Amino acid sequence: MKRYISLLFLFFLFTGITSAQEKKAPNFILKGTFSGKHAHAIFLSYKDDHGKNIEHKAYLSNGAFTFRGFISSPVYAFVRSDKKIVPNSPDVSNAVEIFLSPGNMTISLMENDFANAVLMGSPMQDEWIKLLTLYRPVNKIKDSLYKASFAISRGGNTPKNHVAVMALGAKIDKCNLQIDQIDYSYIGSHTNSYLSAYLLSNSMQMDMRLDSIEMFYNLFSQPVKKSVEGKAISKIILNRKAAMVGSVGRMPLGTNLDGSRFNPQTFKIDNYLLIYFWAGWANDNVYLKSVYNKYQSKGLKILAVSTEPFKKMWRDSVKKERIGMWQNIFSDPVANLDTFYNIRQMAPSLVLLVDKNRRIIGRYRGVNKLYKMDYNEEPLGLLDKKLATLISR
Length: 393
Description:
By secondary structure, the chain is α/β, with parallel strands linked by helices. It folds into 3 domains: 7-121, Immunoglobulin-like, CATH 2.60.40; 125-241, no CATH class; 254-391, 3-Layer(aba) Sandwich (Glutaredoxin). It has 11 helices and 16 strands. It has helices at 7-13, 123-153, 159-189, 194-204, 210-219, 222-225, 228-241, 285-295, 311-321, 336-341, 383-391, and strands at 17-18, 28-35, 41-47, 53-59, 64-69, 75-81, 95-100, 103-110, 118-120, 254-256, 272-278, 300-306, 327-331, 350-355, 360-365, 378-379. The protein has a 7-stranded mixed β-sheet. β12, α9 and β13 form a beta-alpha-beta unit. α3 runs antiparallel to α4 (194-204), α4 packs parallel to α7 (228-241) and α5 (210-219) packs antiparallel against α7. The longest helix is centred in the middle third of the chain and has 31 residues, at 123-153.
């Protein structure tokens, strides 16, 4: 929903799916009708109160289907048919996001037009439909900007076209900021809303600062905090705090360059350690090489953790960047980096300064104009000054 198009499918593709059989008695019924000729079954997916994914399958009978299940609170859900226009790929026209609520609901679906599905009986869905009216003026402008950008792109990647596309992209970014402000205003004024928790969870995907997340989360009522999204937000807050300055750092897990497993228990910190999260497209190797050469003899080590998606890319990047003198590992799995360290694949590099007791004493970010540093992060350029102060003691 909103602008998180890719998240529609990543939500279910990259997490395990639990059987639809639930132990608790059903507290919702979703009855639906389907108009079309090609589908044989409809699927309904959502998360339970433990954060696990539940998927139901209902076969069509004379164009009708029924789902029964248990949800501890109103939740985001995903409905799709077994018909795919393009095999082995997400079929947007036959998939739609909805919000389930306990109780009796109905939904009407039309083949190749799930975007216009009508869901009745869910208060959370009704709330979402009202919020969409606030997005509509901004989204209308965004749509026109995207169309203009695509039209220019079709003319070829010339310098003139590139400048024009970049200018339109900047305007699209401003529209996204407007939508963010609509969300923040809604969250702050609807603290008893399960939709507010959903909006906050989505905002967290866009590098939202931890202090802002906590501020909004603390406004929520207890039922919202205990909801599926509320629990997920609480867990992420705790994990991010665990990687903040003053905490004992969680050592990453992964694979060494020679293919063996990295063992954090036997990895010795002589004096200070830099846990450095990087990738070929987001690194500060030139700066860190100078820092390493300056303080290596004083007991400084670097544990370089790759955020590359593939091992071959990682090994090629290590060779190209000439950083084999550091301890290099391929993170296992990469997806957990955001959970445990607040670092995303496409984010700027992150450096944690850790003392010999494995306590985080500094958190530094590489340069990226689009990234908003968290409240206890500093620019990477200040790392040298910090080390000079520490080692001179």
